[in-house]
Amino acid sequence: MPTDSANRDLAERLSGVESRNVTFLRPPPPFWTDAEGATVRDAAGNTYLDFTGAFGVALAGHRHPLVAERIAAQAGRLIHGMGDIHPPAVKVELLEALAALMPWPDTRTILGLSGSDAVEAALKTAQLATGRHGIIAFEGGYHGLTLGALATTHREHFRRPFTNRLADHVHFVRFPSSVGAAEGVLSEIDTLLSGQAAVPIGAVLVEPIQGRAGVRIPPSGFLAQLAELVRAGGALLVADEIFTGMGRTGDLLACDHDRVVPDLVCLGKALGGGMPLSACCGPREVMDAWPPSSGEAVHTSTFQGHPLGCAAGLGFLAALETEDLSGRARRLGSCALDYLTATLAGREEVREVRGRGLMLGVELRVPGPARTDAADTADMGLAAAVAKSALDRGLIVLPAGARGEVVELTPPATISGRELEAGLEVLVSAITAEATR
């Protein structure tokens, strides 16, 4: 599917007004103009099947009616409030709805606009609750790019320009891929928690499944062992469920799969149904480490608890329940995993097919060192070439992993069986085409 003049023109206009660091424009990408369900249309009128869910945001599909209706109704009454001074009533509704879903009997929440916001709030909460500011995070982890969250994000591409501004009390440990590796990782964490860290550890931050690193799934039982170890060491287990949470992996939270209740949960992406909305949730006994407001909040922002975002969140939660999005993700994801496993079996270029729910990864064999500051898709691994080939065929997927070796799939849970099958066929065709070049 060729890039048409409308997209090229928009790319040229964008390059004239936006920082060159933000949008990748070689070649000019599709500029989205409208989307519904799992389908996206660009400025040139081309249509695509979206297997990214727009970075995992559109779990309920693009422009879900329940989300759109809530936003429209709210916009007709109140677009902006005064967050922590004169709060919008709809914020109370959202917080109550979230509390009813969380695993603690008495939940408290700090709302934000981005995943980074939720992580920042969680790290601050952990420091207040434990009196310790040391952090353990995992290699391959991605938690956002604001300075506090960036300090816990592992990828050097993001960290290097700002290293001298980042907190130096974050310890990175390996993210285990096997039971044997998990034993070594847990032993290292135990050592750090037992006083061997220069700065006492107050938080262990983990993605139950690493997303941007390429859908990396820890061995069964690891999260439960980690939770036990962390609590014994007097720290808090912070689950970054921004990508995995709210039904993406077939459970409300990915931690539910291992029957783990973390001390704090970070939510985002799907939660807002397409609007910027995130949350740091935890039990009252942990969250009450924050002092009561004296009229000047310690942690807040102008748009915290924004009415339109809260309304969208309520629309998403309604869709989550009425359409059983978690169950759909579990069933459709299982079908997709079975199809890809069977279809790609024995192919030399495919190292592994893995996933849980509608969070899937196809790892390809890519020789050479890990990428760093790749400036062109040709330098970013076979998965990037597959993504371009798929795009030319009308399917949107993204590369992931430290070497661009994983094709990542996070389609909407509202996708039809026919759309899912069609997209998977296109993906297999793209992998075959690129592997034979």
List the helices and strands and how they pair.
Blueprint: H1 5-15, E1 32-36, E2 39-42, E3 47-50, H2 53-56, H3 65-75, H4 89-101, E4 107-112, H5 115-130, E5 134-138, H6 147-150, H7 156-159, E6 170-173, H8 179-196, E7 201-206, H9 222-232, E8 236-240, E9 264-267, E10 278-283, H10 284-287, H11 307-322, H12 325-344, E11 350-356, E12 359-364, H13 382-392, E13 395-396, E14 398-400, E15 406-409, H14 417-435
Parallel strand pairs: 3-13, 5-6, 5-7, 7-8, 8-9
Antiparallel strand pairs: 1-2, 2-3, 4-10, 9-10, 11-12, 12-15, 14-15
Helix pairs in contact: 3-11, 4-11, 8-9, 12-14, 13-14
Keywords:
globular, 437 residues, alpha/beta, seven-stranded mixed β-sheet, four-stranded mixed β-sheet
Number of E-state strands: 15
Uncertain runs: 370-379
Mean pLDDT: 95
Gyration radius, to the nearest Å? 21 Å
Shape: globular
Arrangement of strands in the largest sheet:
4-10-9-8-7-5-6
Structural class: alpha/beta
- Percent of residues in helices comes to 25-40%
Describe the largest sheet: 7 strands, mixed
Describe this structure in words.
It contains 14 helices and 15 strands. The strands form three sheets. Strands 4-10-9-8-7-5-6 form a seven-stranded mixed β-sheet, with helices on both faces. A four-stranded mixed β-sheet has the order 1-2-3-13. A four-stranded antiparallel β-sheet has the order 11-12-15-14, covered by helices on one side. By secondary structure, the chain is α/β, with parallel strands linked by helices. A hairpin with a 2-residue loop joins strand 1 and strand 2 (39-42). The model is unreliable at 370-379 (pLDDT under 50).
